[in-house]
Structures are given as structure tokens and as C-alpha cells.
Automatic annotation (TrEMBL):
GO terms for biological process: D-alanine transmembrane transport; L-alanine transport; L-isoleucine import across plasma membrane; L-valine import across plasma membrane. Pfam families: ABC_tran (PF00005), BCA_ABC_TP_C (PF12399). CDD domains: ABC_Mj1267_LivG_branched (cd03219). This is ABC transporter ATP-binding protein. One of its GO terms (cellular component) is plasma membrane. It comes from Desulfoferula mesophila. The keyword Transport applies. SMART domains: AAA. It comes from the Bacteria.
Length: 259
């Protein structure tokens, strides 16, 4: 596939919560294989955008088209099956469970209702488990080989950066084409954040045909990681371009600094 092709096409997307217009006629094209940054002050609609794209909230108007297919009214499960996965600002890990369990919880393809599977359930389950274990080890190994060799350890003993890595692996285990990262630096130190950003860049190198949209308040992260940025304010796109272009835009400075 061409790197310049559009993967996600957003047209006139709006989302109202009562009188609040969280998204207001948003237009956005996300090209395949890019890392796109979504920038904007608090309350500008960034997380709502992720929630509408992933089917968590229905759109009030407009469309979300993924590889030519209109997915605007799809359920979260259908959106996931079409290849869109995400992480959340607040950790959703099940802390007493193992690294393996937490990663494979994201592998919805494991739910198998096939006749052959059920007839030979025991053998099939063992095969499924081995397949999941291998996939999870391979993914977490890209981030951190030590986590891969301690995959049966509970998550609760791990530092924040390891937990974030596990969350990203959970999102990646179903082989998405589009990964939505909602503030991966939340709750981490500056040093941890930059280690995680390097991890994400490495993952991007190793996984073919992966497009990422990232929401992040830490502007140095955006500068380092993104190929392209879009800036939202009051649910509208006010500017887009390279990080340098948007950071120098007077409208963006006004939205952030009120100057
Ligand atoms: P951001 O992620 O840019 O900080 P949000 O998408 O979280 O912004 O919020 C955009 C606007 O929508 C805010 O005014 C917020 O209060 C409102 N909003 C978001 N989710 C809800 C909800 N579930 N119910 C009511 N209002 C919401």
C-alpha cells in the first residue's frame, strides 16, 4: 500500500453532549503509516474524537471512513475487528493478573465458537493458549525482553512504564492497522516518557503497516514522535501540518496562551 494513501477519513464529525459541542464539524485525513499527533487545550475534544472513532459514543453528525468503509455507526467490537485499537488515559490493567493475561485480554479473536474448536476443545484450547503466549511474548519482547521472560508475573508489582508497555501490547495483539494512544505519558516521569516514546518508535519500525494517532500534552513528545499534527480547539480543527508548522501558528498560540 502507498504510504501517502488515506487510512482514515473524517468528514464533518460532530458530537454533542446536551448543549456542549465536543466535536464540531471536524474534517481530518489520516495517512497510512503515519504517526499523527492530536494537539489541543483541555476540553477541545481530543478524547471524544477517539471515543467516537472507536464506536464508544455515537456521532451526532458526520462520518468516519476506514479504508473506504463507513464505520460511523459500528459498535466498538466491530470497529476493533476492522483494525482500530486504542489505549486509555487511565490504566485499565487488571493488576492482580499476570502480564500474559492482561495482554491476551485484548485478543478478541480468541473467542472461538467454531464447531471443530468445540468438538476438540481441550486440544484446541491448549493450542490457542500456546498461540496467545507466543504472540504476547513476541510483542512485549520488542519493548522489554525481561518482561517477556517474566510473563506469568502479576502486573501489580511493575513500575508505570512497564504497565504502559503492557497496555500498548494489549492494544497491538489483535494486529490493528490503526492504534490510538490517549496520553501515554500520563502518570510517568519525564525520563520514563522518553523511554516509552523510543519504544513506540521501535514498535512502529518493527510492525508493518501500522498507523498511529497520539494525544499528548507533552509538546516535546509531539515534536519527537509525530510526522504530522492536527490542532483542535472547541471541537474544530484550527490548524495542521508538521509539529514545527503548527507550533508556530498564531491561532495555536492564541488557543493555548490566549494571546
Ligand atoms: P479533551 O480530550 O480535549 O480534553 P474531551 O473530549 O474530554 O476533551 O471533552 C470535550 C468536551 O466534551 C468537554 O467540554 C467535556 O466536558 C465534554 N464531554 C466529554 N465527554 C463527555 C460526556 N461523557 N458527557 C458530557 N460531556 C462530555
Amino acid at each position: 500500500m502507498e504510504a501517502t494513501q488515506s487510512l482514515l477519513s473524517i468528514k464533518g464529525l460532530s458530537k454533542n453532549f446536551g448543549g456542549v459541542r465536543a466535536l464540531d464539524g471536524l474534517d481530518l485525513e489520516v495517512r497510512r503509516n503515519r504517526i499523527m499527533g492530536l494537539i489541543g487545550p483541555n476540553g477541545s475534544g481530543k478524547t471524544t474524537f477517539f471515543n467516537v472513532v472507536t464506536g464508544i459514543y455515537p456521532a451526532s453528525a458526520g462520518s468516519v471512513v476506514l479504508e473506504g468503509e463507513d464505520i460511523t455507526s459500528f459498535s466498538p467490537q466491530r470497529v476493533y475487528r476492522r483494525g482500530v485499537a486504542r489505549t486509555f488515559q487511565r490504566s485499565r490493567l487488571l493488576l492482580p493478573l499476570s502480564i500474559l493475561d492482561n495482554i491476551t485480554l485484548g485478543d478478541h479473536s480468541r473467542v472461538n465458537n467454531g464447531l471443530m474448536f468445540n468438538l476438540f476443545r481441550r486440544k484446541a484450547l491448549t493450542r490457542e493458549f500456546e498461540r496467545s503466549l507466543e504472540k504476547a511474548r513476541e510483542l512485549i519482547g520488542i519493548f522489554d525482553p525481561e518482561l517477556a521472560s517474566n510473563i506469568f508475573d502479576p502486573v501489580e508489582t511493575l513500575p508505570m512504564i512497564s504497565r504502559r508497555r503492557i497496555e500498548i501490547c494489549r492494544a497491538l495483539i489483535g494486529h490493528p492497522k490503526l492504534l490510538l494512544l490517549d496520553e501515554p505519558s500520563a502518570g510517568m516521569t519525564h525520563d520514563e516518557t522518553f523511554r516509552l516514546i523510543d519504544d513506540i518508535l521501535e514498535i512502529k519500525e518493527k510492525i508493518e503497516d501500522l498507523t498511529i494517532i497520539i494525544i499528548e500534552h507533552e509538546m516535546t513528545v509531539m515534536e519527537r514522535i509525530t510526522d504530522h499534527c492536527a490542532v483542535l480547539n472547541f471541537g474544530e480543527k484550527i490548524c495542521e501540518g508538521s509539529y514545527q508548522e503548527v507550533a508556530g501558528d498564531p491561532q495555536v498560540q492564541e488557543a493555548y496562551l490566549g494571546v
